[in-house]
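Reopening: structure tokens for the phosphoric acid mono(formamide)ester complex, inputs below.
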Amino acid sequence: MEHLIDIQSISKQDIENIINFAKAFKEGKKESDVKSKTLALMFCENSTRTKCSFEIAGQKLGMNIINFDDTHSSLLKGESLKDTIENLYFIGVNALVIRHTLSGIINNVLRLVKYPVKFVNGGDGTHAHPSQALLDYYTMLEKIGTVENKKITIVGDVSHSRVAKSNIALLSKFNADIHICAPSYLQFENFEAFNVKYHNDVKEAIEGANVVMALRVQNERHEKECYPDSSEYKRLYEIDMELLKKYAANDVILMHPGPANRNIEVSGELLDNQVGKTILEQAQNGVYVRMAILNTLLKGGVYAA
Ligand code: CP
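Re-run output (same inputs, fresh job):
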């Protein structure tokens, strides 16, 4: 694995290797191989979980961390992202995590950069968020053992969701039974491209589900106000306790990549009780999965227990 740009370009073995390393880091059975390497966090779009967990992952690995501030950088003087990254490499950066509003920009800049800095996609537009899919998969394995033939229902704004796309790409590799539920105005435009089952009705979508993953309604990416409004979305698609108890599997796990619109996609009651705690555990697992990603990109190797 040279870089982590999207799930499609890494193998099943790469994914299993990252999961094994993450588990070993979490259990304290693996030491860092990348002490004193330097990681730059280049976040050109807002983030809490991805940025902070990559920063803590880097710290736990003994790396030097540079928080690249795009609002005070020479990007604003007209320097290209390619030139900025090549300069960062010569200054001493070994790996960088990039988050950007533009879909596909990381693939484009990776093709232009001539020096061997490692790239991690921290979420680009509506394209991909591979480290989120990996930490989601890690959390599912921890909770339900396997995803094979398990019903996993993703509910919400899939049309703008890099998380949904990366999760579908990953879960397909492991033969999960993937269901998508969204109002027609938030559905994938090219839905035939994804080998999943579609629903408009949330009750039908979560019937017997082992995992229900709610997605944030991404108002900032909507070109115009969505019809119907958020109260109508809440009425039809909000995941609450009654819905889960009545329709999902008894031991269903509730997930959300965060940040959540409380009482729109998921009820406040669920977020604050034991069922909602899985969402916080996703964020916690993100630290170990991101340690595994950084260690693997910079050192390589296959985990052997
Ligand atoms: N899930 C996720 O990417 O959250 P942040 O936007 O807070 O990083």
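The first helix runs from residue 12 to 26. Residues 18 and 100 are 24 Å apart (CA to CA). Marking as resolved unless the reporter disagrees.
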